[in-house]
Design goal:
This protein has helices at about 1-25, 25-35, 65-75, 95-105, 150-160, 180-185, 195-205, 235-250, 255-260, 275-285, 290-295, 405-410, and strands at about 80-85, 90, 110-120, 125, 135, 145, 165, 175, 210-225, 310-315, 320, 330-335, 345, 355, 360, 370, 370-375, 385, 390-395, 400, 410-415, 425-430. It is an alpha+beta fold. It folds into two domains: about 80-295, Spore Coat Polysaccharide Biosynthesis Protein SpsA, Chain A, CATH 3.90.550.10; about 310-430, Trefoil (Acidic Fibroblast Growth Factor, subunit A), CATH 2.80.10.50. The longest helix is centred in the first third of the chain and has 23 residues, at about 1-25. The structure holds manganese (II) ion. Its cofactor is Mn(2+).
């Protein structure tokens, strides 16, 4: 029984691999075709050789669909009770499948991945990867590998075969019960090309009652490439941000603001309609993102008014202070109390001066203008440069953040003057 199940699954995984091959290699195929063939050249149709393998079924999309819709199409066509998704650029190691199937057979709400070994992009050499890793992310919502904690690594030394709970899956390689995949809502098929779908399915599995595991007894090699070997209609950054926004909007509740703070440009990317996915979340009675953070990924640092990237902007013993004002309010100067709160300001690499999710903004390009706190939108009137000597100059016009009228009008932008004490600001990190 076990063996037959395994054979069926293998059958299905290859058929999906075919579908993905077809989708991902569409561009390559057209390039191949455009080359004038030499006499006697035989150019195989994409997937033709795969389809000669026993039990393999190749499914070709009529047009480019991207990986989410292609995978759903492969999954819909599969007949076995367990699905295995593998990128086309994988090589399975010995006995890779059984440990994965066992975990899913024991509990169909487990979604499991092998340890992903590295196949060299240049030489195809197979290089074993560390099994002390799991998948995580930061607030930019980009997947990253991270080392298990000291305690977890020690526990693993006692039993190196035990499953590793992972907050996120890399996305290219995993096994899932087919009925569970369907119940959970497959993939968000309004996502395009590549990216963000692993984030979305990871949040969904955890928040809706399942779990994600890496199974160290299973190893599959994967070619990690430096860039995508295909084009992204609309640009890879925009497609990735759109997909990621869809995941954040559906699954992260108010915590999505931390994503927008980390990637301000994403606020302006249209992400389409998410009603179906919100309905799915409601229907499955999925838990809130706060539950996920508390129970699955407590290591993710939540930016707060204490700690985090915050600091203060000092002028002698006085500090830049929001004076308790909120959106569209002006800011003032107040004796430093070094406890964050209204005096917590951060200067980002992009040149934003941030107080929580508000940015110090020059609303009009003119000297004498009162600065206001507005939603960070990455626009030019929020970009500043902290110069040597302490001046904070606007990126567009030669005005600097100035406190000389703070008692009357709040902090204003005045003609930059390196001799003016009222323009000299020092950024202090409150964490040290
Ligand atoms: Mn891949």
């Amino acid at each position: 029984m076990e063996k037959r199940l395994a054979a069926n699954v293998r059958d299905n995984h290859v058929s999906q691999r075919g579908a993905i091959d077809a989708a991902q290699n569409g561009r390559q195929r057209s390039e191949q075709k455009s080359r004038a063939p030499d006499k006697g050249d035989y150019i195989a149709e994409d997937g033709e050789e795969l389809s000669r393998i026993h039990k393999v079924r190749v499914i070709r999309n009529e047009k480019r669909e991207g990986l989410m819709r292609s995978r759903v199409r492969g999954a819909d066509a599969a007949t076995a009770s367990v699905l295995t998704f593998l990128d086309s650029h994988c090589e399975c190691n010995a006995d890779w499948l059984e440990p994965l199937l066992e975990r899913v057979a024991e509990d169909p709400t487990r979604v499991v991945c092998p340890v992903i070994d590295v196949i060299s992009m240049d030489t195809f050499q197979y290089i074993g990867a560390s099994a002390d890793l799991r998948g995580g992310f930061d607030w930019s919502l980009v997947f990253k590998w991270e080392y298990l904690s000291q305690t977890e690594r020690q526990a693993r030394q006692k039993d190196p075969t035990q499953a590793i709970r992972t907050p996120m899956i890399a996305g290219g390689l995993f096994v899932i019960n087919k009925a569970y995949f369907e119940k959970l809502g497959k993939y968000d098929t309004q996502m395009d090309v590549w990216g963000g779908e692993n984030l979305e399915i990871s949040f969904r599995v955890w928040q809706c009652g399942g779990s994600l595991e890496i199974i160290p007894c299973s190893r599959v090699g994967h070619v990690f490439r430096k860039r995508h070997p295909y084009s992204f209609p609309g640009g890879s950054g925009n497609v990735f941000a759109r997909n990621t926004r869809r995941a954040a909007e559906v699954w992260m509740d108010d915590y999505k603001q931390f994503y927008y703070n980390a990637v301000p440009l994403a606020r302006n990317i249209p992400y389409g309609n998410i009603q179906d996915r919100m309905e799915l979340k409601r229907k499955l009675h999925c838990k809130p993102f706060s539950w996920y953070l508390k129970n699955v990924y407590p290591e993710l640092v939540i930016p707060t008014s204490e700690g985090g990237p915050g600091g203060s902007l000092k002028q002698g013993t006085a500090c830049l202070d929001s004076m308790g004002h909120l959106l569209d309010g002006n800011v003032g100067l107040y004796p430093c109390h070094d406890t964050g709160g209204n005096q917590e300001w951060g200067l980002t690499k992009d040149g934003l001066i941030k107080h929580h999710d508000l940015c110090l903004t020059l609303p009009v390009y003119a000297k004498g203008t009162t600065l206001l706190m507005q939603i960070c939108d990455g626009s030019e009137n929020q970009k500043w440069r902290h110069l040597e000597g302490g001046l904070i100059r606007h990126s567009r016009i030669p005005v600097c953040v100035d406190s000389r009228y703070h008692a009357q009008r709040g902090i204003t932008a005045e003609k930059c003057d390196s001799n003016a004490e009222t323009q000299r600001w020092h950024l202090y990190n409150n964490n040290h």
